[in-house]
Design brief:
Layout: E1 3-12, H1 25-32, H2 39-46, E2 50-55, E3 58-59, H3 69-72, E4 75-76, H4 80-86, E5 91-93, H5 103-116, E6 120-122, E7 137-141, E8 144-152, H6 166-178, E9 182-188, H7 199-211, E10 215-219, E11 227-230, E12 233-236, E13 241-243, E14 253-262, E15 265-276, E16 282-284, H8 287-303, H9 310-339, H10 348-359
C-alpha cells in the first residue's frame, strides 16, 4: 500500500520587489541565510514526502547590474536554490508570468540551479530551456508515480506558458491518468488580489479534473482563494504568497496545503494558515490570528458553493476586481511614500520613471 503526504505552498519570490528595494525578501535572505525560514515551518515541510511550490522569480545572477533597478527587482541569487532544497522543496513550478523577466539566459540558469540543488522542475518546456513542448515531471514515491505539469494562462510580456496549450495538456492528462499516474497540475491563473476564482478558472478546473487530474494547485492572485473537491479531485484555486515582500494586508498571509494520498487516491487534506513578519519571514499562525485566518479561509471555501447565474457572477467579479485593483494602486503609492526615502538614491529617478517605462512596455 502506498501512503504519501504532499505539502503545497504559495508563491515564492526570493528577490526585492521594486517598491521594497533594500528591504525586501532578498535583503532578509542575505541577513538570515538558511535561517530565513523559521524552524517550525521547516519541520512541517520536512514531515512531508513531497513539497511543491511556484518559483515567482529568477534565481540567477546572469546579466545582473546592481545599478539598474530593473535588473535587480524580483531577482533571487542562484544559491537560494540550495536553501529551498534544504527546506525540502521537492518540485518547483516555473510556468508563470515573471520567469522571463530577466531574459532567457537567467531563466535557464534558474532551472539549472534548481536541478543542481536536487529540486525537480516543471513548467520550463520539453527541453527545460523555455521552448515549446510539454515536459511532465514524474516523481516515484513509495510505489506511486506523481506526474506534475506546469501551466501558465497569464498572457503577459514575461510569461512562459509551460510549453503547451490547454488542449495539449488535457490530452496528456488523459494519457497519464490511464497509466495510473497521480496527476497534479500547477497552474498560474486568475487575477491579482481576488479572493475567489473567476468563471474561467472554475471552467478550466472542471475540464482538467474530468480529464483525470487528481489535484490542481493554483497561483498568481497573491491572496488565498478557496479549496473544493470537484469531479473527485482537489482544486486549490490560489494558496496566496508563501515568500513575498507584499505591502497589502491580504497578501501577507497564505495557507499551506497538506494532502494525504493512499494507493493513488486523495483521502484527506488540511490547511495551515501562514503569516509573515515585517521582514517577510513566514510563520505558522498562532492563537487569535490562527482562528481569524482559519475562519476567513473557511468563508472563502464556502464562497465556492454559492450559486449564481453566469452573468451575475461575472459582473460581480468584474466590479470586485476593479475595486481591489484600484485599492492596490492606492496602497502602492502610500507604500512608496514611506519606503522611497530609505532606498539608495541611485534608484530614485528609476522609481519615478517606472510608470512611463511601463506604458512604453520597456519594463
Amino acid at each position: 500500500m502506498s501512503n504519501i503526504t504532499i505539502a503545497c505552498v504559495g508563491d515564492i519570490m526570493c528577490g526585492d520587489s521594486f517598491h521594497s528595494t533594500g528591504a525586501g525578501v532578498a535583503s532578509s535572505l542575505r541577513k538570515y541565510g538558511r535561517r530565513f525560514l523559521p524552524r517550525e515551518i521547516v519541520d512541517v515541510l520536512r514531515s512531508h514526502d513531497l513539497v511543491v511550490g511556484n518559483i515567482e522569480c529568477v534565481l540567477s545572477d546572469k546579466g545582473r547590474n546592481n545599478r539598474l533597478l530593473r535588473s535587480i527587482q524580483m531577482r533571487g541569487a542562484g544559491h537560494i536554490a540550495d536553501y529551498l532544497a534544504d527546506w525540502n522543496l521537492t518540485l518547483a513550478n516555473v510556468a508563470n508570468n515573471h520567469i522571463l523577466e530577466h531574459g532567457h539566459v537567467a531563466a535557464i540558469d534558474t532551472v539549472d540551479n534548481l536541478l543542481a540543488s536536487g529540486i525537480k522542475v516543471t513548467g520550463a518546456g520539453a527541453d527545460r530551456k523555455f521552448n515549446n513542448g510539454l515536459h511532465v515531471e514524474q516523481i516515484h514515491c513509495r510505489d506511486l508515480t506523481v506526474a506534475f505539469i506546469g501551466l501558465c494562462l497569464r498572457r503577459e510580456k514575461y510569461a512562459f506558458n509551460g510549453g503547451a496549450d490547454l488542449d495539449e495538456i488535457v490530452d496528456k492528462v488523459k494519457t497519464l491518468n490511464a497509466s495510473h499516474n497521480f496527476v497534479c497540475i500547477c497552474i498560474h491563473w486568475g487575477d491579482e488580489y481576488m479572493d475567489y476564482p473567476s468563471l474561467e478558472q472554475i471552467s478550466i478546473a472542471e475540464t482538467l479534473t474530468r480529464a483525470g487530474a487528481k489535484m490542481i494547485i493554483g497561483h498568481h492572485p497573491h491572496v488565498a482563494q478557496g479549496i473544493e473537491m470537484r469531479s473527485g479531485a482537489l482544486v486549490a484555486y490560489s494558496l496566496g504568497n508563501f515568500i513575498f515582500d507584499s505591502f497589502i494586508d491580504d497578501c501577507c498571509w497564505s495557507v499551506m496545503l497538506s494532502v494525504r494520498v493512499v494507493d493513488g487516491e486523495l483521502v484527506g487534506w488540511r490547511c495551515l494558515p501562514i503569516v509573515k513578519d515585517c521582514e517577510h519571514r513566514p510563520a505558522l499562525a498562532r492563537g487569535r490570528s490562527k482562528a481569524t485566518l482559519t475562519n476567513e479561509f473557511t468563508r472563502r471555501c464556502e464562497l465556492l458553493k454559492t450559486t449564481a447565474c453566469a452573468g451575475e457572477y461575472q459582473q460581480r467579479y468584474a466590479d470586485d476586481f476593479q475595486f481591489k485593483d484600484a485599492r492596490a494602486r492606492r496602497n502602492l503609492r502610500r507604500h512608496l511614500c514611506r519606503t522611497f526615502p530609505q532606498m539608495d538614491a541611485i534608484y530614485w529617478p528609476q522609481i519615478l520613471f517606472r510608470p512611463i517605462q511601463r506604458r512604453l512596455r520597456i519594463w
